[in-house]
UniProtKB/TrEMBL annotation:
The modification Phosphohistidine is found at H1010. It comes from Magnetospirillum gryphiswaldense (strain DSM 6361 / JCM 21280 / NBRC 15271 / MSR-1). It is a multi-pass membrane protein. This is Sensory/regulatory protein RpfC. InterPro entries: CheY-like_superfamily, HATPase_C_sf, HATPase_dom, His_kinase_dom, HisK_dim/P_dom, HisK_dim/P_sf, HPT_dom_sf, PAC. The lineage of its organism: Bacteria, Pseudomonadati, Pseudomonadota, Alphaproteobacteria, Rhodospirillales. It comes from the Bacteria. SUPFAM superfamilies: ATPase domain of HSP90 chaperone/DNA topoisomerase II/histidine kinase, CheY-like, Histidine-containing phosphotransfer domain, HPT domain, Homodimeric domain of signal transducing histidine kinase, PYP-like sensor domain (PAS domain).
Length: 1067
């Protein structure tokens, strides 16, 4: 127990000493307290423990006191030491502050700033100043780093010591030199020395930088690989405290590209100077404000002057110029100075020192303008062209002679074209009319031979003319909208007569992809196709010629059109293939002798296709046939197509095709299935009959049978007869496809009751129209002209009154005959003057005007007619010409004509041009003439009674075809009435002519004969028309044997009356 607690207990219990008090405490702890009351007993029991804890507290206090005393002793010693150290540090701090104040003032003074005020020289003020200086230093260091970064990005930097040893090289230096940094550091800068510069340059450089000055220059260095590079170098010396260089900083820019360009420019200038000297080209420049000029030595020399012999001013140039050239030259110069032309160019003459004139070609350009764009200085070259001018004069004279010769050739070809085409037109036209009459087999053969020969000759003429145009570079193209199907069908129509009567089938297919309107030269495409298909027909004696079309979209609205002509003809030998497209070349000479031709067609076709940006070619095997093709790119036009698209117009119809020709069957199948029909094919009449009878007893019998006419064994007509004889099939729709004249079937049809007859080659539109009509499905193409059963020409919307102006009697008859076939009335004028008189007296819907005629040509007549009063001067005028070389179309349109029709004239092109203008005529003139439409009812046409056949002796002067067409157009009753009127008019006209002859009234003779000629021609009495025409011409010419001519006319008139009496006694 703690001594202090024992002492306190001793005083409390009154013990004599500490031991007594301790004994008391021990006794208390050992005492039995059970006899004491409960509270006292618990107190007595806990008191010893309390005293123990109090004693421990005293012990702890004593320990803490001892510890605190020791701590105070130690702290006092440390404090003494700290105070001593603080005194020392305070003295050092005072010295540091003094030094710092001195340093700060020096820094401020070096920076040009005032010293610190006395009240700010304390520690706090100096601390603030140093913090500001450190911040400024950090900013400066940051800016320096950025500048170094920027410099390293764009410049080649190196640092060397005083001896040139590299101690720093940036990445740019490494890149351009090809060395690594480790290779450069420690190396002398001579490591990149190229050895190209003289020692004196480096001596000057070291002298400059050794004196503390900056050196600048262009240096060529060497890379590690030995290649060279150029730098624009700036070397800056870094000076020490004594202003002596201790390091050098080199800052360089890569100028290799510039140096390379300068070297190339120097070489170019060298070559230019050589060229200028060799080409005798002089340089000049002129200041427009000061009139100062520069003339090179060569400029002076070309005019015979020595250097500096002429005054260097613009006035010198003007004084030397030829007076006749001044205005044009000054005008060209002024235009360029004003900025109207990019370059000044002029040719003029300058006076040589010897007094002669030298031609000069001047070229120049303004090289300096002021702020307002006014020219200040112009520079250029002069080249002497005297020799060239002399050659040009010679060439010009030669060209003029060549052009004169070419004009003579063109005029000769034009004249020959007209002179040849005029009789050719008559031959072809008259043989065409002749072939439409009743002829014996021998006569038919002769007429066909004449027409074929004439067409061959015309083809040769056309080829030669096209070749001549190509030679002269005058082959023209006329681009416009057109449709593929009418183009192909037009070609087929033209070529169809060539396969009639031959064992050759001409077919074509126009797929849906080729529908629509395209933009191109339809005429040239037609020319190429006619040539290829015509050749195929010429060289195919048996089999087929098929025209196929493909149209594939290339991009946007561009279409690649490919047309193929496939034949089963004689083919082409391998050794002849390379010569095919050469002018005047055929496969071999025997081919030319056998089939004829000029050998120009394919060459012309290739030239046309090439000029249209297309391709042409062929594939052929000798003895097996050929495929000729061409393809061109055309733009698809957004114009409305004339085709009315009907989706699956024959859907559900079951049709049988009976044809022995596989190509025909394939074509019909393709067309019919595209229209939605169910098609069966058989290759002969026997198989067709079997198929018809089998189908008749099935759930789906045939609704229509398409028959070929000529088939081996049983023909299509034979099959039709059998079908009609069988009661179970008698009502089956039968359509016959034949290459024969449809009029041949009129009498047969009374028993065969064919539903329709289609002329071969069969047009797609005609086939579809026919099938839809016969199957009761309406009309496929109501706006299109299709082949009717008996005519391949459209019925006119209006029977026009037409004036034919033509000086050739044969061509007059051809035109009148064709117009009559087309349902129009025609008068004839022999020349332009007569045409003008007739137009003044009469009222015509349209004029067919020949171009070249005696007395007055067609262009002059047109001009006069256009100046007639309104109503007459507005008549539609169509030019007729055989001149294919000159720009007739432009001349016709310029003269006021409406359209153009090239000779020889055929009925299809004539019908097309009339159809083209019929709406215009109706709009401008009104329907003043009653419409006389052709009948559309097929049964009526087939069952109509034709005029009785004329005896063989009469067929020469009566054109029954014309009479048949008139009867078809007018109807039997009107036709008979017309014949009756005509029969009665013949004696009247003959009497008028006799009276005029007796009175010697040639005008009356011509008028009466003209009237009789027109009526006779329109009604097919060609001999009578010819006789009347001869008398008319004699009357117009004022000369001739009128008596003899009248006798011929009387004989022809009596023959006509006799014929009319036999044909119809009632007349």
């Amino acid at each position: 127990m703690h001594r202090l607690l024992v002492r306190q207990i001793r005083r409390a219990v009154g013990a004599a000493d500490d031991s007594e008090a301790q004994a008391f405490i021990d006794a208390l702890a050992a005492a039995d307290v059970s006899a004491l009351p409960e509270p006292l007993a618990r107190l007595a029991q806990g008191l010893p423990d309390l005293l123990r804890r109090v004693g421990e507290t005293y012990d702890q206090h004593e320990r803490d006191l001892t510890l605190r005393n020791r701590s105070l002793e130690l702290s006092s010693s440390e404090l003494t030491k700290a105070n001593a150290k603080l005194r020392e540090e305070s003295a050092a701090q005072a010295r540091a502050i003094t030094s710092l104040r001195t340093t700060a003032n020096e820094i401020l003074d070096a920076a040009g700033r005032p010293p610190l005020p006395e009240d700010e020289t304390g520690l706090e003020g100096l601390s603030t100043l140093m913090a500001d200086l450190m911040r400024e230093r950090a900013e400066f260091q940051h800016n320096l780093e950025r500048q170094k970064f920027a410099l390293d990005q764009h410049a080649i930097v190196s640092i060397t010591d005083q001896t040139g040893t590299i101690i720093y090289a940036n990445e740019k230096f490494c890149q351009i030199s090809g060395y690594d940094a480790s290779e450069l550091l420690g190396a002398n800068h001579r490591i990149v020395n190229s050895g190209l510069h003289p020692r004196e340059m480096f001596t000057d450089m070291w002298r400059t930088i050794g004196n503390g000055q900056v050196w600048r220059g262009e240096v060529c260095n060497s890379k590690k690989d030995g290649s060279l590079y150029w730098v624009d170098a700036t070397i800056v010396p870094i000076l020490d405290a004594n202003n002596r260089p201790r390091q050098y900083i080199g800052i360089r820019t890569d100028i290799t590209a510039r140096k390379t360009m300068e070297a190339a420019l120097r070489e170019s200038e060298k070559r230019l100077q050589i060229a200028l000297d060799a080409g005798r080209i002089g340089l000049w420049s002129w200041n427009t404000r000061t009139d100062e000029a520069f003339f090179s030595d060569q400029w002076m020399a070309m005019l015979g002057y020595a250097a500096n012999e002429l005054a260097a001013c613009g006035s010198t140039w003007k004084a030397l110029m030829h007076p006749d050239d001044c205005d044009a030259t000054y005008a060209a110069l002024e235009q360029h100075l004003e900025g109207a032309t990019p370059v000044y160019e002029a040719e003029f003459r300058l006076r040589h020192k010897d007094g002669s004139w030298r031609w000069v070609l001047a070229s120049g350009r303004v090289i300096d303008r002021d702020a307002e764009g006014r020219a200040i200085r112009i520079a250029g070259v002069h080249k002497e062209i005297t020799d060239r001018k002399q050659v040009e004069d010679m060439l010009k004279e030669a060209v003029e002679r060549a052009e004169a010769a070419n004009r003579a050739k063109s005029e000769f070809l034009a004249t020959m074209s007209h002179e040849i085409r005029t009789p050719m037109n008559g031959i072809i036209g008259m043989t065409g009319l002749l072939l439409d009459t009743q002829l014996t087999r021998e006569q038919m053969h002769f007429a066909n031979t004449v027409r074929t020969s004439a067409e061959a000759l015309l083809s040769i003429i056309n080829d030669i003319l096209d070749f001549s145009k190509m030679e002269a570079g005058r082959l023209e193209f006329e681009y416009g909208p057109f449709e593929i199907r009418p183009l192909i069908e037009g070609v087929v129509d033209i070529l169809a007569p060539r396969v009639k009567g031959r064992n050759v089938e001409l077919t074509y297919v126009v797929p849906p992809s080729a529908r629509g309107v395209f933009y191109g030269d339809a005429g040239r495409l037609r020319q190429v196709l006619l040539n290829l298909a015509g050749n195929a027909i010429k060289f195919t004696e048996i089999g087929s010629v098929h025209i196929g079309i493909r149209a594939e979209t290339e991009f946007d609205d561009m279409v690649r059109l490919r047309i193929e002509v496939v034949d089963t003809g004689i083919g082409i030998s391998d050794n002849a293939k390379s010569r095919l497209f050469t002018m005047f070349t055929q496969a071999d000479s025997s081919t030319a002798r056998r089939f004829g031709g000029t050998g120009l067609g394919l060459a012309i076709s290739r030239r046309i296709v090439d000029m249209m940006g297309g391709e042409i070619g062929f594939d052929s095997t000798e003895g097996q046939g050929s495929t000729f093709w061409f393809q061109v790119s055309l733009r698809r036009s957004d114009e409305q197509t004339s085709d009315i698209e009907v989706i699956n117009p024959l859907e559900g119809a079951r049709i049988l095709v009976v044809d022995d020709n596989a190509t025909n069957r394939e074509v019909f199948q393709h067309q019919l299935e595209n229209w939605g029909a169910q098609v069966d094919l058989v290759d002969g009449a026997a198989g067709g009959l079997m198929a018809i009878r089998q189908a008749q007893h099935s759930a789906h019998p045939y609704q229509l049978v398409l028959l070929d006419h000529h088939m081996p064994g049983m023909s299509g007509l034979d099959l039709a007869a059998v079908v009609r004889a069988d009661p179970t099939t008698a009502d089956l729709k039968l359509v016959l496809a034949s290459s024969a004249n449809p009029s041949d079937f009129r009498q047969l049809n009374a028993s065969l009751r064919l539903d329709d007859v289609l002329s071969k080659p069969v047009r797609q539109s005609a086939l579809l129209d026919c099938l839809m009509s016969r199957l009761g499905r309406g009309q496929a193409l109501p706006q299109q002209t299709t082949l009717s059963a008996l005519s391949d020409l459209p019925a006119p919307a209006l029977a026009l009154r037409i004036l034919v102006v033509e000086d050739n009697p044969i061509n007059q008859q051809v035109a009148v005959g064709l117009l009559a076939k087309l349902g129009h009335r025609a008068d004839v004028a022999d020349d332009g003057a007569e045409a003008v008189a007739l137009v003044e007296r009469g009222d015509y819907d349209l004029i067919l005007m020949d171009m070249q005629m005696p007395r007055m040509d067609g262009l002059t007549a047109t001009g006069i007619i256009r100046r007639l009063p309104a109503g007459k001067g507005e008549v539609t005028i169509i030019a007729m010409t055989a001149n294919a070389m000159e720009g007739d179309r432009d001349a016709c349109l310029a003269a006021g004509m409406n359209d153009y029709l090239a000779k020889p004239i055929d009925r299809h092109r004539l019908a097309a041009v009339l159809q083209r203008w019929i709406d215009h005529i109706i709009d401008t003139r009104g329907e003043r003439t009653a419409c006389v439409p052709f009948p559309n009812d097929f049964d009526f046409v087939l069952n109509a009674s034709p005029p009785p056949p004329a005896p063989a002796s009469e067929s020469a002067f009566v054109d029954l075809d014309i009479q048949t067409d008139l009867m078809d157009a007018l109807g039997p009753d009107s036709f008979q009435s017309l014949l009756s009127s005509f029969r009665g008019s013949i004696p009247v006209r003959l009497g008028e002519i006799r009276a005029a002859i007796d009175a010697n009234d040639i005008n009356a003779i011509a008028s009466a004969a003209h009237s009789l000629k027109g009526a006779a021609s329109n009604l097919g009495f060609l001999s009578l028309a010819d006789a009347a025409g001869g008398l008319e011409k004699a009357g117009k010419s004022g000369g001739g044997d009128f008596e003899e001519l009248e006798q011929k006319l009387v004989v022809a008139g009596k023959a006509a009356i006799d014929h009319l009496s036999r044909a119809n006694p009632k007349t």
